[in-house]
Amino acid sequence: MADSAWFVLAIILVALAFDFVNGFHDAANSIATVVSTRVLSPSAAVVWAATFNFIAVFVFGTAVAKTMGKGLVDLAIVDATVILAGLVGAIVWDLITWWLGLPTSSSHALIGGYGGAAVAKAGVAALLFPGKWIATLVFIVVAPVMGLTLALALTVALSWALRRSLPRRVDRVFRVLQLGSAAAYSLGHGSNDAQKTMGIIVGLLVAEQRVLTDFPVPALHLTDAGVVPAWVIVACGAAMGLGTMSGGWRIVKTMGQRLTKLTPFGGFCAETSGAITLFIASHFGIPVSTTHTITGAISGVGAAHRLSAVRWGVAGRIVWAWILTIPASAGIAGVAYLVLRALVG
After folding, report:
1. Most Cβ neighbours (<10 Å): which of 45, 131, 316, 327?
2. 71: three-class secondary structure by DSSP
């Protein structure tokens, strides 16, 4: 069964299901700020975010997908069972944290799951270390700090520049501007998160080319992990967009209401800072967490007013969930690999 082209196709569908769950789980990243400031209704916000999630696949390159495809795990040990187990680990952890209302990283869940499944098959030598692992792990800290710093600086600078403006006028202007910043953040979300699954699918196609060679679908015949076919790009972008449209309201409440109180001005600063961070990471092919990024940015906006404006207890629980994400998803994926190997050989 594991040597069947149909088994490979089934895993591609599971990968797209992960992208859907990713969009569903991380919808809060794209819409929490614009919903909590009441610039857009929840239904309008998810359509707005999903649209720009999808557009992102045509605007940005595929540097992040290439990192996931050949920069983390030795392709010589990758097979369909490793990919499937990695996806299972990521999806299960995403669903657990969604149920708990914790905005954890789907990106790091996928990275942890992929790595955990590979280690379960071939040991630690399966990881291409240091490879892209150093940059990926370093950005677990850098992304939220960068988001926080940019948001803090932007909030202070704009507050000083607008200090003589009427609050009502500022609010009205930033209600319009926040539409643009929300769109920019959703572009950043799509540019980084959707590409991770693209890389996983490309790695699967390369690893399983032996069983796909005679399969009568030329688009599946891929031997270079540095190439991302157009159908993979479109399918992953569409799956994430549909997931975002489904919404993840438990996490939206945590991000948009419980972390700090946001106004359209603050929402604009948070989204703009988060978008800049994601654009930079995507350009350099670093798979970062959009969740970490926007959480840092929202905290930066709150801290610009006063440190007590941020509910640091909520932030602390979120950080613990971040720390647990890679080892937890890796552990789930490792167990999944052992079970799948026993079942499908």
Report:
1. 45
2. coil
